[in-house]
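Internal ticket - ligand job 340, S-adenosylmethionine:
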Amino acid sequence: MITKPHIPVLLEEIERIATDILNSLNKPNALFVDLTLGYAGHSISLLNILKRKHTLSNKILLSLDWDINAINYVLDKNQKYIHKFFEYTSYKGLTVHRTSDTSESTKWYVVRANFAYLPQILDTLFQKGYLPKKTKVDFLLADLGVSTPQLEDLDRGFSFKTDKAILDMRMDPTTYKVKAADLLNILSHKELKLLFINNVGMSPVLASKLAWSILYEREQKPFGSKDDIKRLKQICEKLHPLRPSARKRLHPCTLVFLALRIAVNQELDNLKTLVDHLPNLLSPDSKAAIITFHSAEQKIIERHVATANLSIENVIIPKALEINKNPAARSAKMYILTRR
Ligand SMILES: C[S@@+](CC[C@H](N)C(=O)[O-])C[C@H]1O[C@@H](n2cnc3c(N)ncnc32)[C@H](O)[C@@H]1O
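stdout (structure tokens):
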């Protein structure tokens, strides 16, 4: 059950860009890809935009997410709109779970997968005849990070709102076996220090102190039980520079939890892989919209676009009105990328 819904970020801006692309296409097909389906706020909008364009004969929305809870929720709520549901893993390839044949000109395919495998997924869908041959992506969206329901499901360990949960933080527990608690138990001082420096830009001095505190704490008792979050919170609160007075609006645990979540889900590696693949996947007049929420994601995009043969056409941030209505949007920064 969902206690708090996810509000899609920068929805109006995304709708405008997707509509412009569709209106300017001079071919009979359109392929839109939403790499981070979540609770389908953006996907449903993209689907409606595709449906309204009657002059195209074959329109497909492909939506991916690796979180089975999000997928199950969307499958359940949107049964009659989803034409096919697949799963893709590197070891099993593509599994077809549900197909409802339809003569509608707009089709919605949902895939449970890591978006880093998008090239393989598109290839397999072409080979198996689910996508017309040689179709390239006309609009691609990635709304990175976690959704509100993931954060609010306190047993998953993403949030420090609770005192009683294991530090898990895996968005896709079927693929990733290492929990945040395992990282705290097995990484050396140097590895933990680098994790905090590289993922959230923590100062080396603070990252080192934090790593020593974690090593001390795990000697008393390894992490991996229901008091994990409470113990990590106590560590963060004791470290003076992490305290709210020094970091103003940020809770002392915010960066520590973010750094661990990024590491557990290999978020930066997945993003790098995606950006590197984009030029081969996008059609000539397409656009990719990537919504980032922190500086490590922004650095990857800014550094990788040039080598990946992409250009940054625009960077869009939410207006004050949107942030007022949805504070979770406050750190969003959407990069609009085009092929060179
Ligand atoms: C911010 S939410 C997206 C919310 C969505 N746009 C909506 O309107 O509901 C991010 C989603 O991306 C998924 N995700 C993050 N990294 C992923 C990856 N590498 N592959 C597939 N899904 C990923 C998460 O599981 C989460 O559901």
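Auto-summary: The domain at 11-147+267-339 is CATH 3.40.50.150 (Rossmann fold). The beta strands are 29-34, 58-65, 84-89, 93-99, 106-112, 137-143, 282-292, 310-316, 333-339.
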